[in-house]
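Provenance and format

Records in this collection were gathered into a single text stream. Each protein contributes a sequence line and a token line. The two records reproduced below are adjacent in the stream.
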Amino acid sequence: QVVILSLLLYPVLRSLALQLHAALTGSYVSGTHSIAFINCLNEQIAKDIARAIMDKKLAAYVNILPKSLALYFWKGELEESTEILLLVKTRTSKIGELSNYVRSIHPFEIPEIISLPIDQGNPLYFKWIEESVPWD
């Protein structure tokens, strides 16, 4: 039981240790922040979802990128459509909550919600993200 509990707590303890190290040294811990990619059917849906994300304070910044052509397989058929892409900048710790929330409001049956951790960047920008996106 101790081993199982240790394995379950490891990510939390590691995260806390890295945050403490970063706070003491002023260094950035790679992966503390992420960019999420969310596709939307049109500009109005993109704006609505972006505003909803911001209202919930699940992100510090959302870019709404213009139309792009998308090719994908859906139910065995090759489909082609235009989509609007959201780039969402947030704490990595918020990605699960962000994903659950977007799935609850997104009109697609299976919306694209993927994220990539940020490796490096402007420390002042990361500090601003932290000030904009509360822990809970």
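Adjacent record:
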Amino acid sequence: KLEEFLNFKQLKTSLKEAILLDYYTAGFCWAKEMNFSLIQLSGFMDLLNFLLENLSDKHMTLGDNLKELGKAMAGIGETDSERSGDLNFFSIEQAKAVIDYLNISLFKHYKLYEYLFHSPREELVISKE
């Protein structure tokens, strides 16, 4: 289903599409295991997409993308509506878990994702398909 939603057409021959599908699938499964509500699950997937787009489209460095994550998570758990951000439907414990997940899934492997998005690769034709 995610393959269709992400509009991946070359999954069998594109390493990039396969890696991204794996990343989104792993994130979705993790969020389901966390028993996130539908709005939390949607917000989490949006956050994954936001951070990957910062890397792929905006060529953000790790430091800049961490700052963007900080801005997105700012105000979680605060009662003052002016300070709460877009992700205020997460509890403080859930926000910590999200940050931990992003750390082990994206930020620790940031150089690999930079290579995936910004290094030209020679594509080998494996079959006639």
